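tl;dr need the bound structure. longer version: we got a ligand (2-acetamido-2-deoxy-beta-D-glucopyranose) that a collaborator sent over and nobodys looked at where it sits. i said id run it. heres the input, straight from their email, havent touched it
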Amino acid sequence: MNRFVVVSAAVFLLISVAYLPLLNDLYWSSLKSLIPPVRVVADLVVRNGTIFTSDDTSFPFSDSMAIRNGRILKVGNFSTLKDFVGDGTMELNLEGKVVVPGLIDSHVHLISGGLQMAQVGLRGVRQKDEFCKMVKDAVQKAKEGSWILGGGWNNDFWGGELPSASWIDEISPRNPLWLTRMDGHMALANSLTLRIAGVTSLTEDPVGGTIMRMPSGEPTGLLIDAAMELVTPYVQEVSVDERREALLRATKYALSRGVTTVIDLGRYYPGTTDELSWKDFQDVYLWADSSKKMMIRTCLFFPITTWSRLLDLKLQKGPVLSEWLYLGGVKAFIDGSLGSNSALFYKEYLDTPNNYGLEVMDPEKLSNLTMAADKSGLQVAIHAIGDKANDMILDMYESVAAANGDRDRRLRIEHAQHLAPGSADRFGQLHVVASVQPDHMLDDADTAPTKLGFGRAEKESYLFQSLLNGKALVAFGSDWPVADINPLNSIRTAVKRIPPKWNHAWIPSECISFTDALTAHTISAARAAFLDYHLGSLSPGKLADFVVLSTNSWDDFSEDCSASVLATYVGGMQMYP
Ligand SMILES: *[C@@H]1O[C@H](CO)[C@@H](O)[C@H](O)[C@H]1NC(C)=O
Ligand SMILES: *[C@@H]1O[C@H](CO)[C@@H](O)[C@H](O)[C@H]1NC(C)=O
Ligand SMILES: *[C@@H]1O[C@H](CO)[C@@H](O)[C@H](O)[C@H]1NC(C)=O
């Protein structure tokens, strides 16, 4: 090749490179003048409100928001959104109303909740007579021989006496009864049910469970924690259709409370089989998703014993099955509940001497399962209520992280209800999520001191501010159907901590700010389930889930935490009313 050609080619190249930015500009500006700009037109513009975004990287408030294809285009003052308004843009004028991001409930048992709505509802029953009357009414309506299921009772409401089969045997000679306590850790069987399940004075207490007995050794009908498994295999199977209806019923109810996303921890009795969560997934959730019946977003957790099955599914399908259905992690239990005196404590219960609570699973087995599930990359959530149970899980999580190496794992403790001195700080230090349920304190405030002693109850219970001080990620939930699903109430409870019939806060130093409480039901709840890429705040690119409230004043709302849900939008579509 000729030297001249090589040199001039090199010079040309150099000049071109030097002028590339300029050429580029010229090129683009000439092109732009030829093609009209592509305009992004919003499907919906929400305006003239007080929109709280829960987005800590931008303005917390704005007055308008533009939405397209179910996602947020932009949040800002109306003047900055005008460009998105075009043919076909719908407008929602909020007339000053307050809007918050769709509320996320970090811990529910959605199908159990929906089923319970159709069963004997004993929540709030205040007397033995009323209890018996409701059961009697249900028996009269039921077919002879069919199972009668119900739940929600709380013996603390009538002074503490535990119900027994003798309360209900006469009114239910031919129908087996199975009535769970509101916390799901205890259930009452009538004598017919005990007979069907073969539970007698000779039956030994299973590991992790207690059969309540009369002095003669005869069972009273009450079965605690793992002892419930003696009966659950015999309880009439709920049909697929009933479970599907339960999901739809539960969904509608949740939407009416402003809930747009739930983390579903599966069926709520420790006694239910691990297989049931998978059956619900296949028969109910996949059915609802494929037949376009999902109306709230659901992230599912599965029993820890089935972790490899979940792993296979996630490897095959990824964590996002659809805009509605997300695969979360695995769930386990270490202890029971305070109400059933089965939460695990360092010191004995004052009202049942020598009782420290129960380990409902062998800790070594649980640790092995957690180690394996975590190593595979799955998120782990473990139920721990008593102070000792919480420390056991914190220790276990610490060794799991040390063994499996640094990772953004967001290990969760569900409930984290009673924490020994210093333990609240460990959540932040170890990056363990505190998945807590403020409304449970309304049930526990009167009884915790009688069970734990006043000093211990005051130092250890529902330490939300301490957890936040320790920089823990705190996510709120209801544990529905254990408590009602009602995030606005749970926010109020966390801020005020005033139990029914009290006129002052329970442990005032643990009251948290309104913004912190709202954060715990929105962006923190999303982070706690690895959903924050899609959900949790009103930010560009995220799903357009939001709730219109009945108030026009942010100041009033944040002051007395009282407002009701006027409308719930999921993906920019009005789902309630
Ligand atoms: C909206 O406008 C108000 C005052 O007109 C201003 O204070 C606020 O910062 C603006 N918000 C955004 C998101 O630009
Ligand atoms: C915004 O809402 C207020 C009520 O708070 C109403 O008076 C006003 O007319 C509305 N503005 C627009 C532009 O719709
Ligand atoms: C837990 O794992 C260890 C080490 O693999 C094993 O030796 C032990 O038997 C396991 N324990 C249980 C209860 O599975």
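gonna send this back to them w/ a short note. The pocket of 2-acetamido-2-deoxy-beta-D-glucopyranose (ligand 3) is lined by residues 362, 364-365, 368 (CB under 6 Å).
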